[in-house]
Amino acid sequence: MLPGKELDHSRQEDPKVKSGYLPHLDGLRALAILGVLCEHFAVPLPDLLRCGPVSVRFFFVLTGYFITLSLWKVEAQMNRPGEGGFIHLGRYYLARLLRIGPPFYLSLLLGALFGIEEVRTNFFWLAIFQANNYIAYLGYWPDAISHYWSLAVQEQFYMLWPVVVLALPRKWFIPTVIGFIIFGLVFRIVCVMTETSTITRWVTIFGCIDSFAVGALVAWLKRSRLLERMQFLPKIVLFALPLVAFSCFFLGRAMMTLPEGNLFLTLTESFDAVFLAWLLVTALNGITSRCGQFLGWAPMVYLGKISYGVYVYHIFIIILVSPLLVPYGLDETHYAAIRIMVLFALTVMISSLSWHFFERPFLNWKAALADHTARPALSSIGSFATN
């Protein structure tokens, strides 16, 4: 049990902490990764449909949601008498490593082996999940490793959030989450007012923490069963919510066209957060329209499952394959659509191979540990628990 916290047996098997599997969420992951690919494959889109930045933020919101639920489960396990306490916290970090680590480090090794100089030169900073801070220090985007910034931010969040969920009293959770949401906006405002680098505002965890906090807030609403009550809201409110959400989406895209130094630019991520929160809440409540059928469509669900591999490999595929396409007249201006299809097909193929033959074995190991802990503890040491 954590020091200074009372043992609450009523929270040990809290069914509200369990999230369950929803195919729609994988469908949303697929939409998010498609937004990233459109940005990096140079798909010609108008500014109001530029989805790369908001797509990355959606992964942060999802991380905040799922990690918060996971840590509440860890808290319940730690509070069980005679089950090893902090062993379960160790399991939390092991689970994160088993999910994030294998494809992450494989991509680094492949990048170094295939001669990508920015990977070789900066291997240490990448390997310890400091790519975001290193890029902020450089002050420019090193193209070959720029995508690692978001993975570094997520890993830093994994280290920070147990302190918020497990160490702080439960009554402080919502005020702390709201504080983080405000802090993210204030940090971006200060960066603009002090003419701090745009990259610093974008890649450091201080400028991203509000997106994670929004996901954590949705997790609290889920756990409190407030999401289930949304269906009983007045029809005019239910009709207005998507209008407000999509208005925030387009306002966010419009804000991104403002010149650097404009304070309204700092509202981009805040508008995005409103839209993404609505999107996640809608998916959790179940989408029954044609949009829901599309998100639950098997290819979209599958793309969502392999989206992590798609993210870590796609930049290297662009760097290594694009020059090979130029002699055939395929570049960003000539036969761009064919180039995009080739890059997309190769990215999905490699990510699929990684998922089935490299990532799944580690996830199966993680599941085996979870199955083992599901049995009653046989000693005061306890056993690993599901996560």
Would you give an account of this structure?
This protein is mainly alpha-helical. 68% of the residues lie in helices and 0% in strands. It is built from 16 helices and no strands. It has helices at residues 23-40, 52-78, 87-113, 117-121, 123-127, 131-138, 148-167, 173-193, 198-203, 205-223, 235-255, 268-284, 290-295, 298-305, 307-325, 336-373. Helix 1 (23-40) packs parallel to helix 15 (307-325), helix 2 (52-78) runs antiparallel to helix 3 and helix 2 (52-78) runs parallel beside helix 7. It is globular, with a radius of gyration of 21 Å. The two termini are 17 Å apart. Mean pLDDT is 86; it is low at 1-19 and 373-387.
Helix content: 55-70%
Relative strand content: under 5%
Mean pLDDT: 86
Radius of gyration from the CA trace? 21 Å
Question: How many distinct helices?
Answer: 16
* H and E string: HHHHHHHHHHHHHHHH
Give the N-to-C terminal Cα separation.
Answer: 17 Å
Largest sheet: none
Q: List unreliable stretches of 5+ residues.
A: 1-19, 373-387
Briefly summarize what is shown.
With 387 residues, the protein is mainly α. The protein has helices at residues 23-40, 52-78, 87-113, 117-121, 123-127, 131-138, 148-167, 173-193, 198-203, 205-223, 235-255, 268-284, 290-295, 298-305, 307-325, 336-373. The longest helix has 38 residues, at 336-373.
Name some characteristics of this structure.
mainly alpha, 387 residues, disordered C terminus, 16 helices, disordered N terminus
